[in-house]
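A.,

Following up on our hallway conversation. Structure tokens first:
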């Protein structure tokens, strides 16, 4: 018996074609370059139509293999690897006692959840997960492993739902070779399971994917970090639980933005603290905000903030140094110092993308030392 999720259907063939055709202009744009390269034998001609047909063929093969699995013993034979250490028993209304058997598709790195009876019969399976739609319009996805599986009654209907956190890594782009997490929830119904894509989107968009406890606090208990990114006033932040780090709270004159309060602080949710820094004007309005934590799980200690000219353009920039904690590959607690630089520009701030590639942060570094190193990278010092 094969199942399907109710609120977000899997990418259809038509949708795949649509996504490919949206990017067809790229093929037209580089057609002249391809023609030149072909003339000297560097590349083989691949038209948009051929790419489309190839992807559809791969999709058909993938779905054929997936839908042919009827027993747990079929999983490996069809090109999927069972994640043995993440197999768990659970109770369901429609199938009774089952085992959750997660598996990775070996070629496209997609995650599939199988639900099997004790004799190995597959009674339900789904690949309709947030992480399988991360690379939109592609079969290839960034899944590396499962970080956490938890069973909780999230919508308080008496049924156990599934909380899922996957560990991911991209092969290309901004997050190339960087680990990050994707959270998801499968709600149990009378017919099987479904997911609400709006809930999954909010979990991942606002960093509530660090732990099963964070997802539980959001979905069941109604806590959320969303306001940290959407609030427009200092008053709103404080009303919703933001705590100012008073020893680092001060005001500065910014050349392009005027006299502003530099207001760092945290919001704690499920034992995780999120560090945010806001620039607030004299009327209490938020002019700019920063989230220097990146993909770390938790603020361990804020070591310092400074507003000084770093890139030598005569305008105050902001450097933040802190210690963060995060879970290692074996879920061990790790602590690391890290910093972030924000450069003042005419209309706001730009996040540094150059200095951090060359200037590593050690546990012994201070804010002042990092400022000196960053200035040296840009080829100047205030004494010159």
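Then the amino acids I'd put at each of the 384 positions:
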């Amino acid at each position: 018996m094969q199942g399907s999720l109710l609120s977000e259907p899997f990418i259809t063939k038509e949708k795949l074609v649509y996504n490919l055709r949206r990017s067809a202009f790229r093929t037209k744009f580089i057609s002249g370059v391809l023609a030149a390269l072909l003339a000297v034998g560097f590349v083989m001609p691949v038209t948009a139509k051929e790419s489309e047909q190839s992807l559809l063929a791969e999709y058909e093969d993938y779905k054929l293999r997936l839908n042919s699995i009827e027993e747990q013993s079929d999983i490996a034979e069809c090109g999927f690897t069972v994640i043995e250490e993440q197999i768990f028993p659970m109770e369901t209304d429609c199938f009774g006692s089952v085992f959750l058997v997660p598996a990775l598709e070996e070629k496209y790195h997609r995650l599939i959840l199988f639900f099997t009876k004790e004799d190995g019969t597959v009674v339900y399976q789904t690949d309709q997960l947030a992480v399988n739609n991360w690379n939109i319009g592609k079969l290839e996805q960034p899944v590396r492993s499962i970080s956490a599986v938890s069973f909780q009654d999230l919508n308080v209907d008496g049924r156990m739902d599934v909380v899922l956190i996957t560990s991911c890594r991209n092969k290309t782009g901004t997050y190339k070779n960087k680990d990050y997490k994707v959270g998801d929830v499968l709600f149990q119904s009378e017919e099987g399971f479904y997911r609400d894509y709006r809930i999954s989107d909010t979990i991942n968009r606002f960093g509530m994917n660090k732990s099963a406890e964070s997802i539980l606090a959001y979905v069941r208990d109604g806590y959320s970090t969303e306001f940290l990114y959407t609030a427009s006033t200092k008053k709103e932040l404080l009303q919703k639980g933001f705590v100012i780090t008073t020893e680092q709270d001060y005001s500065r004159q910014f050349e392009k933005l005027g006299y502003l309060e530099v207001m760092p602080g945290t919001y704690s949710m499920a034992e995780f603290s999120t560090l945010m820094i806001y620039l607030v004007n004299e009327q209490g309005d938020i002019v700019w905000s920063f989230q220097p934590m990146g993909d770390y799980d938790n603020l361990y200690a804020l070591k310092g903030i400074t507003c000084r000219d770093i890139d030598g353009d005569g305008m105050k920039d902001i450097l933040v140094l802190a210690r963060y904690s995060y879970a290692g590959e074996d879920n061990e607690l790790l602590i690391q110092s890290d910093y972030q630089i924000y450069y003042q520009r005419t209309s706001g701030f730009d996040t540094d993308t150059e200095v951090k590639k060359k200037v590593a942060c050690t546990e012994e570094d201070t804010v002042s030392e990092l400022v000196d190193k960053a200035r040296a990278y840009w080829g100047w010092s205030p004494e010159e």
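Residues 1-38 have pLDDT under 50 and may be disordered. Curious whether your intuition agrees with the design.

B.
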